[in-house]
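Table S2 (continued). Query chain:
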Amino acid sequence: MPALPKNPNSSSRLLADSAEAERRLLEAEERLREAIEELQRRQRTAASGQHPPCDHADDSCVANAIGNLCQSFLLSYGVRVGIGILLRAFKLARRQSYSSLLDLKQLVSEKDLIVREEACRVGLLFGGFTGSYHALRCLLRKLRKKETPVNAILAGSIAGLSVLALDDSNRRRTLALYLLARVAQCAYNSAKSKNKFHLWGSHWRHGDSLLFALACAQVMYAFVMRPESLPKSYQDFIQKTGPVAAPVYKAVRENCRGSPVDVASISAYLYRRGKSNNVKLEEFPSIIPCSVIHPDKNSCLAHNANAASATFRKTFPLYFSLTFVPFVVLHLQKFMDTPARTFWLAVKGAVRSTTFLSAFVGIFQGVICMHRKIASKDHKLVYWVAGAIAALSVLLEKKTRRSELALYVLPRAGESLWWPYFVHAWEESCTT
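Corresponding output:
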């Protein structure tokens, strides 16, 4: 006689697990049956010479394309306007004008919130792409009477012309380079999954961080030594984020190249800082001293700590807006269900990303100051090494974000690396 289970709860748990397993099996069988029927229906349609049916059975092709266009336009427009309003609110709060946060004239006025045209262009970019992509896929499906990856490639290529909605050629180039990096990543991942090709070190745990470090090293080197190889917006972002003035970088660049330093420009900068009498200036110094790099602070440690702190204060509103607004717009129902949790996750993510960027700035400046403590002559490779070391701060970011950051910086690094050779070739062609 079999022994009865000692615990009646374990018996009921076994029965519940068995019933759950049987239910899942029945659901799997039903899905398999539906898939077989769909496959047979498509085969009959292909044999009859008709075009395969579209995936939007309830709507016409035109209605589906217009619906996707409107939805993408409204979402992207809402994200851009929401980010602009939140940044404007941070700006008013920083001025301690808290009552103005309730004044719509100050918060969303045409004078102070100039994002409407840009939001429309962003909306036309994404809305135009999705709408035209779906319309072209339906059209190609009917014309070619079959559904193949070629349809998606052709539709995506033509729909990509929606990038012309952006009026700034630099922004179009930035988007194109980022998408090109994503395409390369997809192709590499596909080849790697099929054991056709893989790069040395691709299995490393922190390979994405290494890629980010190499890319940042090149970008920071280009910013100091060849700023013309970077877009103006990229230069402005790095310049505003860091604590060193543009005339100082210019003097460092001239010094490393062996050219005479613009003493008048440096003197004017130090005069504005009230430190013109404390620094001895030469046209051919061996190195630009720390007293010129950070004239407001005598201590390098205090300067670097202040630089990191200032970067945190300047960039936290931006990172919070980029984290909070897209989630609210794209996942409104989740936000309505758990607003406090969404707000907390946005704050935590923004603090983490801002800490990473602040650490990057502090470490980069720290390496430059340390070099001046142990060396008497400057070298341009110092700034490449400083960028690589500072980029290790990306380890503060989440693992999933590191590869995204690397793919964002990598195209700019490649562009800045290629630019000097292009200029040299162009100059040679002009002289011959």
